[in-house]
Design a protein that fits this description.
The chain has 357 residues and is mostly beta strands. A hairpin with a 5-residue loop joins strand 10 and strand 11. It is built from 3 helices and 15 strands. A 4-stranded antiparallel beta sheet has the order 2-3-4-5, with no helix packed on it. The chain has a 4-stranded antiparallel beta sheet with strand order 6-7-8-9, with no helix packed on it.
Length: 357
């Protein structure tokens, strides 16, 4: 069940998002005719595939809509299946008339042989530099069009051992350049850290944490990060070593988005997917250009980021950290690994890693 209260999903005739509203006991849907879609929901936050989370710009003139409460779930599910069938029939006819284009894969950067690259991004400054992120904690910079033989180390936090909390899914997972990078030289990374022994002796002091940090490029070398410039923007406690999400990106609205998994293990044991009092299992939306004072109604609490005024829960009653978190843009995710915005519609499409499929 993926939900953004600002978005009325009726405007998106997109079957993966709609199917996420079907009751858990729904049978798998299988349709043939050029492609087969299989979708099975056994548990909340146990879905997979592409889901539509929202669109930009948000429709702030409309009141927030809890779409799943507008009609009984079984009625919603039946309507979803009818729309799904009609759409796939249309897609089948289109596919028969217009064959899919041929796709050819070619190796790139053959001389860059470090293991576990997880992300690559081009600097938005016209320098034609590609930055390749490695899960172990390194970022290498190469020139666009090269074979990787010119690679230089831009960033290295391997001494922090970001994979220690869970070798397969923890680590340095993403990089995002500030929209004004060409002038301010700021960039952001998302990584994980294992907490010191004994720090997780109480229920809410978890053994791992996820970190968003801001860094600046070194003043004397554009191909080197200044590690001493680190400003920690956000830290999120993590109960288990998997389901850490993975992407940090600036949206077309200039805000910083982070997809966070449900905290790990299996079957969302802590119920984070449908709890708005936690940042886990969410898509977060932050304003890194401002700061928040008097956080959670406490004059002594400050946040290293601002809250966009049109986030869905920004006007919820202040109940401290027990209430709805204002950083949330969408909730109900399991492990959002990658996402992107459709340039034609502004819709945010997210690939959510599934379970039991």
């Amino acid at each position: 069940m993926v939900h953004n209260p600002l978005v009325n999903l009726d405007q998106f005739p997109t079957f993966p998002a709609r199917l996420s509203g079907c009751p858990p006991e729904s049978q798998p849907v299988e349709v043939s005719g050029g492609s087969v879609l299989k979708h099975k929901l056994k548990k909340i936050s146990g879905h997979a595939g592409l889901v539509v989370i929202g669109n930009y710009p948000p429709r702030v003139t409309d009141p927030p809509k809890v779409w799943l409460n507008q009609r009984p779930l079984r009625t919603v599910c039946a309507r979803m299946k009818r729309i799904l069938t009609a759409m796939l029939l249309g897609l089948g006819l289109t596919a028969s008339a217009q064959p899919l284009p041929q796709i050819t894969l070619k190796p790139v950067l053959p001389k860059l042989t470090i293991e576990r690259p997880v992300w690559m991004s081009e600097a938005p400054d016209g320098s034609r530099r590609l930055f390749v992120v490695y899960q172990s904690g390194r970022i290498m910079v190469v020139r666009k069009g090269s074979d990787g033989g010119d690679a230089r180390e831009f960033f290295n936090i391997e001494d922090r051992d970001p994979q220690a909390g869970g070798q397969n899914e923890c680590g340095l997972l993403s990089l995002a350049f500030h929209p004004g990078f060409a002038t301010n030289q700021l960039f952001y990374v998302y990584y994980n850290q294992k907490n010191p022994a004994g720090q997780h002796s109480q229920p809410l002091n978890f053994p791992i944490r996820s970190v968003i940090s801001e860094f600046k490029v070194a003043t004397n070398d554009p191909d080197r990060a200044d590690l001493k410039s680190e400003r920690i923007v956000l830290q999120v406690p993590q109960p288990f070593g998997n389901h850490k999400g993975g992407e940090l990106a600036f949206g077309p609205d200039g805000y910083l988005y982070l997809g966070l998994g449900d905290g790990g293990a299996g079957d969302d044991p802590l119920g984070n997917g449908q709890s708005t009092s936690t940042l886990l299992a969410k898509m977060l939306r932050l304003d890194v250009n401002t700061r928040t004072r008097n956080a959670f109604g406490d004059p002594s609490r400050h946040l290293e980021y601002g809250i966009p005024r049109d986030n869905p829960f920004v006007n919820e009653p202040n109940m401290g950290e027990r209430g709805a978190r204002q950083e949330i843009y969408a909730y109900g995710l399991r492990n959002p690994w990658r996402y992107s915005w459709d340039p034609a519609t502004g819709a945010l499409w997210c690939g959510d890693v599934g379970q039991d499929l």
